[in-house]
Design brief:
The structure holds 2 protein chains of 2 kinds. Chain A is mainly beta. Chain A contains 1 helix and 6 strands; from the N terminus they run βββαβββ. Chain A has a 4-stranded antiparallel beta sheet, with no helix packed on it. Chain A has a two-stranded antiparallel sheet with strand order 1-2. In chain A, strand 1 and strand 2 form a beta hairpin. Chain A is globular, with a radius of gyration of 14 Å. By secondary structure, chain B is an alpha/beta fold. Helix content of chain B is about 30%, strand content about 25%. In chain B, helix 2 runs parallel beside helix 6, helix 2 packs across helix 9 and helix 3 crosses helix 9. Classes of the chains: A mainly beta, B alpha/beta. Chains A and B meet through strand 3 and helix 1 of A and helix 7, strand 12 and strand 15 of B.
C-alpha cells in the first residue's frame, strides 16, 4: 500500500488516488508548428525510468485535485509531492 | 544430445538416473558472435532456437542478466489463445497456435499444452453484440469461435454465479475451444535445451552494460563478462526494454508496469476451462496440481518492483468472487508479480530500428507468454533476413508515427488503464 501526501489533504492511502502518468511530459505549445517527432514524444514516447519518477496522480476520492509525486519505480519510496501548478525543481 | 524417450528413461533407470546429459551447457562468452540475443526469457530462447532451426544461424549467444526463465516466462498465468479481432493480431496469434500444437514433439520436451478452451463472459446485451462481432472476425481468419448463450455457459461452468440478482449477470460468452494453457517453465527449458544442442551459447548471470554503436551500426555489446563483437543484436527484454533503450539513446512508446498473479491452495478438479470476467479484468484457470491460477489488472503505476501491492490484488479477487463465489472459501497459496512492457496501443513491436543491426522485440503487455513461439519465429526471420515477415509487418515501430495503431481494446495511450 502506497501512502501519498496530498499537498491539500495530507497523508492518504493509495486507494483514494488514481494515476495519471509521467509528469514531465509537456504538450507542444499551442498555435505553433509542431514536428512529428515532438508530437510523438508528447503522445507516445516515454522514458519510463527505473528509479526516481515524477508522475501525476489525482486525489479522486478526496479533494479531486491533480498533484505531482516523485516516486521510486523500483522501491515505491515517495520523496516529494507538489501541487499540479508547482514546477518540478 | 540424448533424446527424451521411454527407452532412454528405462535405460537411465539402470544407472539410477545419474548419467543424463546436462540439458544445456554453461559456456564462457566468446569474443565474437554472428547474432546476440539479449534476454533469456521465452521470447529470446525461442528466437535463438528458430535462428538455428529455420535459418541455420548457430553462432548465436543469448545473454541473460539473471537465469533463463526467471522473468515473465516463469511468472505468467500460462494462457494461450488467439481470440483477436484485428487481422494483424489474429493471424500472428493463430500462426502461434499451430506452433503450440506441435511444440512438445518439435522440442522433444513435454510442454503440457492443454487446449481446454477459453470463455470470455458477457454481462450485457451490448457485450454479446461485441463478442458476436469479434467471433465473426475470428472465424473469417480461420480461428474457431463459438458464441454461447447463458444456458450453454451454465452447462460448462455451473460453479459461476448464475443467480438473478447479481450486479453483473452472465448473459453468455465467447469461447475459443482451441485455446488453452501450457507448462510455462517447460517452454523456456525446452527451447533452451534445443537451442543449446544446435550450438547456441546460453550465457546466464551476464548483464549488458552498454553498446558499441558507430556510424549508425551495431558493432558490439559490452557486458559484465566482457565485450562481445557482433553485427546483429536482438533486444528481447520485456520490462527492461526502457533501461536498455536509454543506453542506446532511444525513447520508446513503452512503459514498464507491474502485473500480479496468484494461486490458491490446490483443490479437486472443478474448472476445466480458462474463464475471463467480462465486467472487469480477471481471468482464472485450474492448474494440473489443482491450484486456481488467477490474475487481472496492472498495479496501475510505473513499476520495476517485480512484486505487487495488496490493493490491486484485493480488487482483482473481488471481481473473481463476484464471478465465482466459491473462491472466497479458498486460501491463497502464493502471489507474485512480473514487469510488463506496456506499449501505447496494447500491441507488440517486432521490428528493425534506425540503428543498423539492432532489432527490437517488446511491447507484449498482458499477452507475452502465448506469443512465445510466434514471436521467436518472426523475430528470428526479421534478424536473419534483415526484413520483417508479413506476420509481424503490423507490429512495426513506426506505426505510432504513421497512425497505423493496433489498438485491439480501443483504450488509447493510457497503458495503466486495463
Amino acid at each position: 500500500m502506497l501512502h501519498i501526501k496530498c499537498p491539500y489533504c495530507g497523508m492518504r492511502s493509495q486507494n483514494e488516488f488514481s494515476y495519471g502518468g509521467d509528469a514531465t511530459v509537456k504538450r507542444p505549445e499551442l498555435n505553433k508548428e509542431v514536428s512529428d517527432q515532438d508530437w510523438d514524444n508528447f503522445v507516445y514516447n516515454r522514458k519510463s525510468p527505473r528509479g526516481k519518477h515524477w508522475e501525476l496522480w489525482q486525489h479522486i476520492s478526496g479533494c479531486r485535485q491533480w498533484i505531482k509525486v516523485e516516486r521510486d519505480t523500483a522501491t515505491h519510496e515517495i520523496f516529494n509531492t507538489l501541487k499540479a501548478n508547482e514546477e518540478i525543481l | 544430445m540424448q533424446k527424451y524417450s521411454i527407452f532412454n528413461l528405462v535405460k537411465n533407470a539402470f544407472s539410477g538416473h545419474q548419467n543424463w546429459d546436462l540439458a544445456w551447457k554453461d559456456p564462457t562468452p566468446k569474443k565474437e558472435y554472428d547474432v546476440v540475443i539479449i534476454g533469456g526469457g521465452g521470447h529470446g530462447l525461442a528466437t535463438a532456437y528458430y535462428l538455428a532451426k529455420e535459418h541455420n544461424i548457430t553462432n548465436v549467444a543469448i545473454i541473460e542478466k539473471g537465469w533463463i526463465g526467471g522473468g515473465n516466462v516463469g511468472r505468467n498465468t500460462t494462457i494461450i489463445r488467439s481470440n483477436y479481432m484485428h487481422d494483424d493480431n489474429a493471424l500472428f496469434s493463430e500462426f502461434g497456435m499451430d506452433l503450440w500444437r506441435k511444440m512438445s514433439q518439435d522440442l522433444n520436451y513435454n510442454v503440457m499444452f492443454s487446449p481446454r478452451g477459453i470463455i470470455n463472459l458477457a454481462h450485457s446485451d451490448a457485450q454479446m453484440n461485441v463478442y458476436a462481432r469479434r467471433g465473426n472476425s475470428m472465424r473469417l481468419n480461420g480461428i474457431d469461435a463459438v458464441l454461447l448463450n447463458r444456458e450453454q455457459v451454465k452447462e460448462i461452468i455451473p460453479m459461476a454465479d448464475f443467480s438473478e440478482n447479481v450486479r453483473f449477470p452472465i448473459f453468455g460468452g465467447l469461447m475459443q475451444p482451441s485455446a488453452g494453457t501450457a507448462r510455462h517453465d517447460a517452454v523456456a527449458w525446452g527451447y533452451a535445451r534445443q537451442a543449446d544442442s544446435m550450438g547456441v551459447d546460453i550465457i546466464q548471470n551476464c548483464e549488458v552494460t552498454g553498446f558499441d554503436v558507430s556510424g549508425g551500426k551495431i558493432n558490439g555489446v559490452r557486458t559484465s563478462r566482457g565485450d562481445i563483437k557482433v553485427k546483429k543484436i536482438g533486444l528481447c527484454v520485456a520490462g527492461s526494454t526502457n533501461i536498455l533503450a536509454e543506453k542506446l539513446n532511444m525513447t520508446l512508446p513503452i512503459e514498464t508496469h507491474l502485473l500480479q498473479a496468484c494461486v490458491s491452495e490446490p483443490v479437486k478438479p472443478v474448472l476445466d476451462r480458462v474463464v475471463t470476467f467480462g465486467a472487469g479484468h480477471f481471468y482464472i484457470s485450474q492448474s494440473d496440481k489443482g491450484e486456481m491460477v488467477m490474475g487481472g489488472d496492472l498495479d496501475g503505476y510505473n513499476s520495476y518492483a517485480q512484486r505487487g501491492n495488496l490493493p490491486t490484488l484485493q480488487h482483482v479477487l473481488t471481481e473473481g468472487i463476484a464471478m465465482m463465489p466459491f473462491l472466497s472459501k479458498l486460501k491463497m497459496l502464493r502471489t507474485w508479480g512480473g514487469i510488463m512492457d506496456m506499449s501505447m496501443d496494447g500491441s507488440p513491436i517486432i521490428d528493425k530500428t534506425h540503428i543498423e543491426g539492432l532489432y527490437l522485440n517488446c511491447g507484449w503487455c498482458y499477452g507475452g507468454f502465448k506469443a512465445t513461439p510466434a514471436s521467436g519465429w518472426t523475430f528470428a526471420h526479421t534478424i536473419a533476413q534483415d526484413r520483417v515477415h508479413k506476420l509481424n509487418a503490423g507490429y512495426s515501430l513506426n506505426r505510432f508515427n504513421t497512425g497505423h495503431l493496433l489498438d485491439e481494446k480501443g483504450l488509447g495511450t493510457k497503458t495503466w488503464i486495463s
